[in-house]
Design brief:
CATH topology of the largest domain: Aspartate Aminotransferase, domain 2
Helix content: 25-40%
Order of helices and strands: HEEEHHHEHEHEHEEEHEHEEHHEEHEEEH
Number of domains: 2
Strand order of the largest sheet: 4-12-11-10-7-5-6
Shape: globular
CATH class of the largest domain: Alpha Beta
Structural class: alpha/beta
Largest sheet: 7 strands, mixed
Bound molecules: pyridoxal-5'-phosphate
Number of helices: 13
Oligomer: single chain
Strand content: 15-25%
CATH architecture of the largest domain: 3-Layer(aba) Sandwich
Distance between the termini: 36 Å
Length: 388
């Protein structure tokens, strides 16, 4: 049996895989088992922030793997402490809880908000959390409950209670839910990724901040896909001119290793106490060493480059044949296509370019440091496929 047959036989069928085995990678280029190359505009769904086998990241990871690969959380270990310090210094947040994935980072965000409310009110009367229709917050039972998309809910109930959904960009719906339910937080992605790469409007976000103030709600921002330089700033909330009370992130943070983080602001920095939350592998030294090497390099010069590449893609594709619209921010872009997005994806793959889809759109999440030449080549192939 070849790898595809073995995988199809033994790996649980939760993924509809494309007929492509990635055997090797270097920068933005993936190679299949026959050596055919592909310009990868998906980055493992925004995880490989600096592409495949990035030298600085790989060196940091292997140095740490050759020293201490894991301790328990009963002991101090440098990489997690240094990463938490760097994240707090760069964001103004106060404390960090490390998890292993985006969903787990969100679990921590939800638990933190609920405990904050419990300590404040002395009971569960304000456990509600308002999230948005079309959001995506993860696959655990609670983060599925937070996810405002029915398709993910079918056949997995019952769910964690206490989540209320408002349409994105409908502030009056958020207000109504806050008035009618005992809530502690509003949780949202500033660019809904899986929901179709749609950025929330600045007006809506400003209104939500106002409603939160009036109803004493925490603001939880899910930066799992948008975070770590993806939108052209370190975190997407930096485009909107406010600081959240709680922020979750994952994906690009680890540069391709599994790590999630829940960052806690001033209001909630002391909510979690010893024993209130934990994770065996949370803050794993190898993952944290890799993440440090990523976050250290997300400077203004790189963010400028992300913005320039974003502009290039938007200019090339807006109004191009076969394109209805381009949405998103930075290097997190969605293309509303005339042809079915899946057909465009398959056509691109055939011609050595990997793209993603989100709902009915083609989605692009290239490595932040993709060379301009590779980007130009990939976009010209994509344009031809879009125009067919
Ligand atoms: C916005 C958002 N939140 C949460 C998640 C869940 O992250 P993970 O798959 O690492 O659990 C995702 C994954 O796509 C995401 O895009």
């Amino acid at each position: 049996m070849d790898i595809k047959q073995i995988d199809n036989t033994y790996v649980a069928e939760t993924y509809a895989r494309f007929p492509l085995e990635i055997a090797k990678g270097e920068g933005c280029i993936a190679y299949d088992e026959n050596g055919k190359s592909y310009i990868d505009l998906g980055s493992g769904i925004a995880a490989n922030a600096f592409g495949y086998a990035d030298k600085v990241w790989a060196d940091a990871v292997s140095r740490q793997a050759n020293s201490v690969q894991h301790t328990s959380n009963l002991y101090y270990c440098a990489p997690g402490a240094k990463l938490a310090q760097l994240l707090c210094e760069k964001t103004g947040m106060k404390k960090v809880f490390f998890a292993n994935s985006g969903a787990e980072a969100n679990e921590c965000a939800i638990k933190t908000a609920r405990r904050w409310a419990f300590k404040k009110y002395g009971d569960e009367s304000h456990a509600g959390i308002i999230t948005l229709v079309n959001s995506f917050h993860g696959r655990t039972i609670t983060t599925l409950a937070a996810t405002g998309q029915d398709t993910f809910h079918t056949e997995f109930g019952p769910f964690t209670p206490g989540f209320y959904y408002a349409p994105a960009d409908d502030a009056s719906a958020v207000r109504k839910l806050a008035e009618e339910n005992g809530c502690c937080a509003v949780m949202m992605e500033l660019v809904q990724g899986e929901g179709g790469v749609n950025a929330l409007s600045k007006e809506f976000v400003a209104d939500v901040l106002e409603i939160a103030k009036e109803h004493d709600l925490l603001i939880i921002i899910d930066e799992i896909q948008t975070g770590n330089g993806r939108t052209g700033k370190l975190y997407a909330w930096m485009h909107y001119g406010f600081t959240p009370d709680i922020m979750s992130t994952a994906k690009g943070l680890g540069g391709g290793l599994p790590i999630g983080a829940c960052l806690m602001g001033e209001k909630v920095e002391n909510v979690m106490t010893p024993g209130s939350h934990g994770s065996t592998f949370g803050g794993n030294p190898v993952c944290c060493a890799g993440a440090l090497s990523i976050i250290e390099r997300l400077d203004d010069a790189l963010m400028d480059e992300v913005c320039k590449k974003s502009e290039y893609i938007i200019n090339e594709l807006t109004g191009a044949k076969g394109v209805n619209s381009v949405t998103g921010m930075g290097l997190m872009l969605g293309i509303d296509t005339v042809r079915p997005a899946k057909e465009v994806l398959m056509g691109c793959m055939e011609r050595g370019v990997l793209v993603l889809t989100a709902k009915t759109k083609v989605r692009l999440l290239p490595p932040l440091n993709i060379p301009f030449e590779s980007l130009k080549k990939a976009i010209s192939i994509l344009k031809e496929e879009l125009a067919k």
